[in-house]
Amino acid sequence: MVKIIDGKKISETIKDKIVQEIYELKGQRPNLAIVLLGEREDSKLYVDLKRKQAKMVGIDTHFYHLTESTKEKELLEVIDFLNQDELIDGILVQLPLPKHLDADKIINSLDYRKDVDGFHKESLDKIDSGGVFLSPVFASVLRILQEINYKLEDKQVAIIYNSLIFGSGLVKLVKNRKGKSILIQKDEIELKKDQISQSDVVITALGVPKFLDKTYIKQGAVVIDVGISKFNGKVVGDVDSDSVKELASYITPVPGGIGPMTIAMLFKNTLEAFKNKIK
User: From 116's CA, which of 53, 55, 93, 162 has a CA 20 to 30 Å away?
Assistant: First the structure.
């Protein structure tokens, strides 16, 4: 019978530890700057959630809400200001950015020591050797595998992705743990269906509602759903849980799986950035 991985419960454990560590700082509080461009409803929702939960764990947030039409030069000026602001320990630029902006250029303009989202080149280049900050998404995937005591050595991992950063980052982490990765883009899903259905672990991050059913899953596979979208007014993942649960051994739900954990890991990185500063 499939076991549901309770990401919310795991995230609460992580946040409880953060609260304790901040309490022991005796009045000092980490500071996180959040930059949001435009009015995307999903991005606004994520940012509101992060700000609310940050306050609960003892992290102060500084919110910069810029318009959709903000020019690259203006955004870079905001980031430069935050890079130099000694109060700010971590900077999060909420993705995705408007199409006229080069996300790689923007992220790499951050002071890598403040890039708590872990997508700066400095962090990605060292991802398999304990880089500056591990992306909260990657950290959440690894924590889930740790929670179920699952070793990747000699396992085949199918990574279904939209973002090359996400896909290539996970490949490095899997290789570092002696596993084998298969990278699958959206337009390759049917072509590589047999490979997916032979994989021990399937990690999907497309944002395509419930596309992954039992025909893609082998008996006993671990399924980690990073995708999120809306279907008939409800928040759902990439995985059709009702279908997949017949075969999978473990599955992360949406909502309540990876999502809460990425927020907790973001706060963990912010606390680490603060501790690095005061060493």
Answer: 162
